[in-house]
Amino acid sequence: MTQLTEKIIFAGSMGSGKTTAIKSISEIEPVSTEVDNNDTEQSNKQLTTMAMDFGTLTLSDESKLLLYGTPGQERLSFMWSVISDGSLGVIILIDNSISDPLSNLDIYLKGFSDLIDQSKAVIGITKSDLNHQVDVLAYHDYLKSKGLSIPVFTVDVRQKDDVLILLDGLISLCESKYILGE
Amino acid sequence: MDITHKELPNSNNSDLYLSILLKNTPEEKTAVLREYRKRMDKEKGLEHSLLQQNNDVMTAVQNLVDSSNEKQILISLEIENILLSELESCQQAIDKHKVLIKSLEKQLIQKRENEKSVIQSIRKFKEDNQREMTRLVTSHQEELARLTASHQEELRKITENETSPSFEMNSLPFESEATVEDIIFDKELATEPTPQPDTEALFYKLTTWPDFNDLTKGDRIIPLATRLMAQQMSLKQMENFLGGPTEKQRLLRFIDELTSIGLLTSTNTKEEPQVTSDKPEKNNRLQLFKRIRSSLGI
């Protein structure tokens, strides 16, 4: 049997939980390129991903599902297209506790527009308990104003079940596309 | 009073004789006796000497008895003083303990009073609580009855106008903690689900992505919503998608939730079926997604 590899991308702002999400489902200890965070304006966490995070999941036919986490800093956005090329889809994580999460979302809507145009993207809102000003409805309204239709989930990426919900959403989109022959 | 090392004052020699009696060793006694005899030899005449000796013996013994009595009296007094002192300290200790016992008794009485007060407060709180609970339950039942009537009327209108699935509140279990879970679709009440013919004929589609956190959780709900975003589906198709007739209750709840927030539209008109892909890789990709789901346990 042909050993295929597929990849899924985890994108999002610094501190949104990409590394944590990959850790929660990867069967290997994720390869992480975390360094000391010097960009405290964006996030006050101590470490941040510089190049990417990487985890894997072996499927029943021994093929591999590769999990990539992109660096969150906008100045490293040139890597996003490199990493996401040929992927099944992207899970965009947005840290809802930051001052303007919707503007932050906009960066990733542009950065992953290719996948979004192909309906291969879902959005996960993290740390939603820290900001009740912007709720799921606000995200939907914002996406609608941009002419986009993307499923949005409120998640705690420390919980594996929540990360699985995001993957369920993304795979459902992919299935739907292939079944309907798009 | 020590009389062994002290000469008794006496005008005759009785004190000397007494000191003979009081000496400890034979040698000392002999020495003193020699002295006594030397003195006696100086006296005139044997008869007088013997008489004098008898007097001395009598006087010495008398002195000894007197001093012994005196000593006994002193010792008795001393013992009496000691006993009185002990008695006094015992009495003081007893008094002290009596005071302590009285204090403890007072504390115990106060504690019992406090306990009584607390028990009374708890009883009162329980009674008040019970009254409040009764009032709330009554109020709750009245509100539920009102909402049930209102809801049934609204649903009847919707069913008549838009042929949506109808359901009603089961009003019987209100007395035993009625909750939202008591909402039972009228289709469930029958042994076999018998959907309305017009409901069966409807085609549903999602207009906007819902907030999944507010929806019924469970297997295949997210894929179903995804499919509904992409194409129309009938009730039967959705039922099969979720896994068959056993999922009907979950499906109806899902439809009701989406309809109530206006995200699910229904129509009698079936849209043109979308062109399905004939690409050879289609099956491979679908198998891949199944494997991913299987590996992730979703």
Order of helices and strands of chain B: HHHEEHHEHEHHEH
Structural class designation of chain B:
mainly alpha
CATH architecture of chain A: 3-Layer(aba) Sandwich
Give the mean pLDDT of chain A. Answer: 84
Low-confidence stretches of chain B: 1-11, 166-195
Sheet/helix structural class of chain A = alpha/beta
CA distance, first residue to last residue of chain A: 26 Å
CATH superfamily of chain A: P-loop containing nucleotide triphosphate hydrolases
Q: Tell how many strands the DSSP assignment of chain A holds.
A: 7
Plain-language structure description:
The complex is a heterodimer of chains A (182) and B (298). Chain A has 182 residues and is an alpha/beta fold. Chain A has one domain: Rossmann fold. Helices cover 34% and strands 26% of the residues of chain A. Chain A is built from six helices and seven strands, in the order E-H-E-E-E-H-E-H-H-E-H-E-H. Chain A has helices spanning 18-25, 78-84, 101-111, 113-117, 136-145, 160-179; strands spanning 5-12, 31-36, 47-58, 64-69, 89-95, 121-126, 152-154. Chain A has a seven-stranded mixed sheet, with helices on both faces. In chain A, strand 6 (121-126), helix 5 (136-145) and strand 7 (152-154) form a beta-alpha-beta unit. Chain A is globular and about 45 Å long. With 298 residues, chain B is mainly alpha-helical. Chain B has helices at residues 14-22, 26-42, 46-162, 186-189, 197-200, 221-230, 235-242, 248-260, 281-296, and strands spanning 167-169, 183-185, 203-206, 233-234, 264-267. Chain B has a three-stranded antiparallel sheet with strand order 4-3-5. In chain B, helix 1 runs antiparallel to helix 2 (26-42) and helix 1 (14-22) crosses helix 3. The longest helix of chain B is centred in the middle third of the chain and has 117 residues, at 46-162. Chain B starts with 13 loop residues before the first helix and ends with a helix. Mean pLDDT of chain B is 77; it is low at 1-11 and 166-195.
